[in-house]
Amino acid sequence: MQDSKERSSSDWWLDFYESSPFELFLSRKDPQETEATIDFLTRHLELLPGQLVFDQCCGNGEISVALAAKKLAVIGVDLCSKYIEMASARCAEFGESCQFYRGDAFQFKTDTPCDAAINWWTSFGYSKKTSENLEMLKRAFESLKPGGRFALDYPNIPAVLRNNKPVQEYEYDCESENGVIKVRRESSLNLIEGLREQRWIFHMPDGKELVHDTSLKMYLPDAIVESLQLCGFVDVEVFGSVFGDPLELDSERCIFIARRPSA
User: Fold this and answer.
1) Is the pLDDT of residue 78 over 90?
2) How many domains would you assign to the chain?
3) Which of 25, 50, 144, 207 could be bridged to 148 by S-S, CB 3.0 to 4.6 A?
4) Residue 176 vs residues 132, 134, 179: alpha-carbon distances, Å
5) What is the C-alpha to C-alpha distance for residues 124 and 256, in angstroms, rounded to an integer?
6) In DSSP terms, which residues pair with 208 in a beta bridge?
7) Domain that includes residue 106, residue range
8) Alpha-carbon span 31 to 207, nearest angstrom
9) In which band, very low, low, confident or very high, does the pLDDT at 7 lie, cut at 50, 70 and 90?
């Protein structure tokens, strides 16, 4: 990892996840949501027991462990070392069928071609440069077997533009920090650069305040379809939810299913 004085301040993801308790947002408390997600992925990626799935930007392994429970093998990668430790611990019972690596998803591709790949919960679009964001899609494409399918989960930007909330506040009772962590998220839309800019303020139980700035490049659905096609994907489908709903103006999510050509 580059020294903070040397890297661009725009590369916020290089230390945000290591330096903040963002993992509070990674654990889904609604088991029905996770079940619906796995059902959606199983159906649209045409997954069968024993197949290998690449979890690009796997986080703490929330999706990986659910896939492993369906008798799927998983290779996960994430830049955040503590997330890799969490994911490895959660999937320890599945042995060597689940392997996790600390790596840069802009560069990492699997040594073994995979039957399917996923990039879930907004791990795409971190760079201000589209050319860099495309590199992540290319690594997913390169990690697939011919005919393998890819699922990309991203916010529905028309809904973001229409319904942006300038301030949101959350509270989490965190045992590891011996108290309540209060989170304030301030969001603004930079229409000139096409960015959703956010300031995260974490009020820790010991009185410390952690402040981090992040941004997400805002792509309309057609731009992501074009990006997937530029990387070689075909048969791109777009959904508005894990329940298979069609994409509409106010859909919260924008989920893309694409395929690497068979030949």
Assistant:
1) yes
2) 2
3) 144
4) 36, 37, 8
5) 12
6) none
7) 12-159+220-259
8) 33
9) very low
